[in-house]
């Protein structure tokens, strides 16, 4: 009886852990639970989380818009310039832009408006030298995810957010599974010691 109880308890534990291990960062990013489990086993998911966190810490991820507009103002372009500079340093990484609106207007209109805003951000990044293939499917959440819960006009809700969505599967670095090298590339490069040796020619010149 104890043996069966132990096995039953183990099965419950496995079942509980299975959902946690299979839960992706975003179901639209890594697909279903099976794909996410494979990503976890390969280490990809952990490194994607690290890179997403780093992107959010090192550059502004959000731009805002005027009411009922998808036009980029000077502040928005300045933020996107910073994003483009960061993105260019990681050619193996893909990104996604999410469009949002405030709650003024119909849901269908706001969804379309959020999509236009996201596309405006994507087009600007492409104009700054980012391959469109690295900017994944543009998604609009319309008015459904406000930062400030209000039915009134609110600029902070009229925004796009740029996020890391994963890795380019066919990139040589990714094919080799060198995710750590991607995340810590500049640390790896800065770790190369500079020689303090003086060339023979320099020594001769000094002696002369």
SS class = alpha+beta
Helicity range: 40-55%
Mean pLDDT metric: 75
Q: CATH-wise, what's the superfamily of the domain at 63-170? A: OmpA-like domain
What order do the SSEs take from the amino end to the carboxyl end, as H and E? HHHHEHEHEEHHHH
The separation of the N and C termini measures 93 Å
Strand segment tally: 4
**CATH topology group of the domain at 63-170:** 60s Ribosomal Protein L30, Chain: A
* Strand residue content: 5-15%
CATH architecture of the domain at 63-170: 2-Layer Sandwich
The major pleated sheet works out as:
4 strands, mixed
Organism: Phaeobacter inhibens
Keywords: Cell outer membrane, Membrane
Protein name: Outer membrane protein OmpA-like protein
GO cellular component, one term: cell outer membrane
Offer a few descriptive terms.
60s Ribosomal Protein L30, Chain: A, single chain, 10 helices, alpha+beta, OmpA-like_sf, 12% strand, disordered C terminus, elongated
Report on this model:
- The relative contact order is 0.14.
- The chain has a domain at 63-170: OmpA-like domain (60s Ribosomal Protein L30, Chain: A).
- By secondary structure, the chain is α+β, with helices and mostly antiparallel strands.
- Residues 3-25 and 195-208 have low confidence and may be disordered.
- A 4-stranded mixed beta sheet has the order 1-4-2-3.
- The protein is built from 10 helices and 4 strands; from the N terminus they run H-H-H-H-E-H-E-H-E-E-H-H-H-H.
- The longest helix has 21 residues, at 2-22.
- Helix content is 52%, strand content 12%.
- InterPro entries: Bact_OuterMem_StrucFunc (IPR050330), OMP_bac (IPR006664), OmpA-like (IPR006665), OmpA-like_sf (IPR036737).
- Keywords: Cell outer membrane, Membrane.
- This is Outer membrane protein OmpA-like protein.
- It comes from Phaeobacter inhibens.
